[in-house]
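Hey L., structure's done. Input below.
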Amino acid sequence: MKGVILAGGHGTRLRPLTKITNKHLIAIYDRPMILYPLDTLIKAGVKDILIISGREHAGHFVEFLGSGKDLKIRLTYKVQEKAGGIAHALALAEDFAGKDPITVILGDNISEIIFPKQCNLLTAGR
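Output:
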């Protein structure tokens, strides 16, 4: 199972904070927002994760998270050149996914759902 975190968008409702950084890197309580969905995927046993962001802040994610080695995961990054919505962002994940199943999580959502490790996320909740 591979994971995809969608971390694009302009964060217009959070301006002026988002003039200098991506909304997913703004701290919520004790850590940047992106760490909440990342932690959800890691707890579910997902070790190969793609982060898709807009071009203006892509380097901020790389600077903050690096390769993922410190978290014992592998991070890959893709840039969504222009706003095109969730479907467009997911199309960018096609090569990353290959034939493997993926789970997608939004980078600005905080969830209390905890998936069991190595569960089949495609059938969870059915």
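Strands lie at 2-7, 27-28, 31-32, 48-54, 74-80, 102-106. Residues 121-126 have pLDDT under 50 and may be disordered.

-- N.
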